[in-house]
Amino acid sequence: MKTNYKLVLMKTFINVGAKILSKVLKFPKNPKYYHTKMLMEEYKILKKVYWIEVYGNHQFYEPKTKKITDGNFENLLDVSFKTLTFLSENDPYYRSWIGLIFRLTYEQVRNFNEISPNLLRQIIRDSWLMDLFFLPQKVVKNGWEDFIEIALTNDLGNLYKIESNKAHEIIVKNKKNIKIGEK
C-alpha cells in the first residue's frame, strides 16, 4: 500500500494542534442561542457514538490495559464543536453561517431521495469500498433509508442506533475509569 505523505503530514499538524486546543477551549456554560444548543446536542450524541466505537474497536482501545490508544479524532471533535459553539454564542455573523450549514445539510440529505439506486450504490462503493451492485435495485429501493445511511455514515449509523438504545450508559457503568462527556 502506497503511503500518502501529504495526508500523514496534514494529520500530524491537525492532531498536534487539536490536542493543545482541546485542553484550552471551553464550551459555553449557559448557551443562549438555539444554534449553540443544537451544536451541543449534536456534539453529545457524536461523543457517545465515538465512545461506543472506541470500546468496540481494539484499534483504539486496549481492553487489557484499559487505555485508549488514539484520541486524535476525539480531540478534533472537541475542538471543532468548542470553536463553533463559541462563535455561535458570540458572533451573529458566524451564527447565521452555522444556521445555513444546518439548513443546507438538511436539503442535501433530502436530495438523496431523488437519486437512482445505481447512483446510491456508486456513492457507497466510492466512499467505503463496499460494492453492493450485486444486490437487485428492488432490494435497494426497499431498504432506501438504510442504504442512504450507509452512503453517509458507513457503519457509524449502526453505532448511533446503539447509542439511541442507551448503550453508552452500560459502557459508563463498566468502564468507570474512562470519562465520557465534555472535556
Describe this structure in words.
By secondary structure, the chain is mainly α. It has one domain (5-174). Helices cover 69% and strands 2% of the residues. It is built from 9 helices and 2 strands; from the N terminus they run ααββααααααα. Strands 1-2 form a two-stranded antiparallel ribbon. α3 crosses α4 (92-111) and α5 (117-128) packs parallel to α7 (144-153). The chain is globular. The model is unreliable at 176-183 (pLDDT under 50).
Helical content class: 55-70%
How many structural domains can be distinguished in the coordinates?
A: 1
Distance between the termini: 36 Å
Which sequence of SSEs, written as H and E, runs from N to C? HHEEHHHHHHH
What is the SS-derived class? mainly alpha
**Largest sheet data:** 2 strands, antiparallel
Give the rounded overall mean pLDDT.
86
Biggest sheet: strands side by side, in what order? 1-2
Shape: globular
- The low-pLDDT segments are 176-183
- Report the C-alpha radius of gyration, rounded: 19 Å
Give the strand content.
under 5%
